[in-house]
Amino acid sequence: MSNWSKRRLISSIDWVGPAEQQDQIPLAKAAKKAGVKGFVPCGFITVCPPGGIMWLRDEKEIVYNQIRQLWIPYTLVDVGWWYQLAYPGLESGSIDYAMTSGNDEIVGDGDMPTTLIDLRDIGRYMAKIISDPRTLNKKIFAYNVVSTQNKIHELMEELSEEKIFRNYVPEQTIRSRAVVTRQASETYPFDTRKFVPRYLAEFQLSCFIRGDTNPEYAKYLGYHTTQELYPDFKPTGL
């Protein structure tokens, strides 16, 4: 590994709460004073433009702007929707051990293309990203495959030989949830019972209604994709 890559600082601060994101600002100032050659703030969420679509995105962008104002070399890394959140549970419970959420909703018609990544691959991508000079002062989008919620359900039924109930949630329901949870979280911004439902509603709105995680949209927003940077990388299959 080059000296350049050894002098990089990767922030893995807890991304769940809005307050924790701001804690990276003094960390960035310390990195500047210490002469760190590359700062990787806690990104690692799905692609989405800033400005009122996802609160979590906007909180991260505040940190990114502080980094740029400090003139610190940086790399921003975002990822696809996790495999471990993407597939539905089975009535038999046979895959419960591998799931990180019990949410089995299909948003809209279930046909919006969405980028996906295995949680276990993020570290493997990062090993390449932080040792690659091409990623300095760039936005990187790491993902494995593109699929839809309907195709994932079909794949699960084929592999498990179990019938899966499809719980379709209309677009307007998701939009209404986003409005209600935004209002609740603004009143109690540091109450996890308030902001976690907001995060979920806004992720569903961004990923499965707006289609923000489309690789072509990511390129439009200025991201470089791992598919282009590392064509020989062998990701974990869905």
UniProtKB/TrEMBL annotation:
Protein name in the entry: NmrA-like domain-containing protein
Record domain NmrA-like: where: 19-176
UniProt-listed Pfam families: NmrA
InterPro entries for this protein: NAD(P)-bd_dom_sf, NmrA-like, NmrA-type/Isoflavone_red_sf
